[in-house]
Write a structure and sequence with these properties.
By secondary structure, the protein is mainly alpha-helical. 54% of the residues lie in helices and 0% in strands. The longest helix has 18 residues.
Amino acid sequence: MKNDIPTKPKPTKLGAEKLTPEEQKRRFIEAAREAGASENEADLDAALKRIAKAKQERL
């Protein structure tokens, strides 16, 4: 039998807040910039080549 008293919705995680997709995107971009990420495709390719080369050397 269900309780008829309305209850407050529980957050999915302790202290978690619901964000709109736009706010999630804004926060992600902000964090990426703070971490030194680049939007340049050439920078990504160079980073991936360094990672792949390092893995091959370890094998």
